[in-house]
Amino acid sequence: VSTVSKSFRQHSDPIISYCTRLTVKPTELEEKITNDTINNDNWFVMLGAPEVLQLGKNFIQLIGAKKALDIGTYTGASAAAWATAMPSDGKVLSMDVSHASLDSIGKPLINQYSDIEKKIDFRLGPALETLDNLINNGESGKWDFCFIDADKVNYKNYYIKCVQLLRSGGVIMVDNALWGGSVVRDQWQSLDTRIIAETNEYISQDNSTNSALINVGDGLHLAFKK
Ligand SMILES: C[S@@+](CC[C@H](N)C(=O)[O-])C[C@H]1O[C@@H](n2cnc3c(N)ncnc32)[C@H](O)[C@@H]1O
C-alpha cells in the first residue's frame, strides 16, 4: 500500500479511495476520458489523478478563473477538467509535444461536447516555447490558473514562467510534487526527483507566492500569487 498515490492505482491506500469517493464529481465526458485512458493507453499512469483535477476545478470556480494554462496535455483529461469548471467564455491553452494520445483517445470524446471543445486550444510544441511566446506577446499577468504536469526536467522553468504569466490572486498547481515519495528518499535521486525536489525548495523560498505542498495524488504543490 502506498500513501503517495493516484486514486486509480491498485496499490493506493484505502483512505485515498475514501477521500476520492466523497469529493470527486466527474462529468460524463471526464469519466469517459479517464476510463478510455486507463483501459486503452499503456502510459495511463500519466493520467491526472481525478482528485487533483477536482481540486483544480474547485480553485477555478473559487477564483473565477477564465484563462488557464495546461502544461502537458496527454489524453486531454486535465484540459477537459479546467474547461468544464469555467464559464462559456473561458479559455484553456493546453500544451504538449505530441498529440498521439490526444488524437486517439481524448479528442474524439471532447469533440462530442462542443461547449467544452470550443474552450480548449490544443497547442503542439515544447511548452517552454509556447510560454515564452505568450510572455513576448504581452500576456504576463493575464492568466488565472496554471497546471504544471509535463516533463519534470523543466519543472522549475515552468514554475518561473507561470508566476510571470499569472495575475495576482492566480493559482499554480504543480503536479507530481512528491514523485511517489522519492523526494524524501535519498537512494531514489533520479534526475527527475532532484529537479522536482529543487522546484519544491524554490517555491518554498519564492516571495512572490504563498504555497501549500499537499499529499494528494502524486503530491501537489499549490502556489498562490501574491
Ligand atoms: C503526465 S502527462 C500529462 C497528463 C495530463 N495533464 C492529464 O491530466 O492527464 C505529461 C505530458 O507532457 C508531455 N511533454 C513532455 N515533454 C514536453 C515538453 N517539453 N513540452 C510540452 N509537453 C511535454 C508528454 O508528451 C505527456 O503527454
From TrEMBL:
GO terms for biological process: methylation. Gene3D superfamilies: Vaccinia Virus protein VP39. It comes from the Eukaryota. The keyword DNA-binding does not apply. GO terms for molecular function: O-methyltransferase activity; S-adenosylmethionine-dependent methyltransferase activity. Keywords: Methyltransferase, S-adenosyl-L-methionine, Signal, Transferase. Pfam families: Methyltransf_3. Belongs to the class I-like SAM-binding methyltransferase superfamily. Cation-dependent O-methyltransferase family. This is O-methyltransferase.
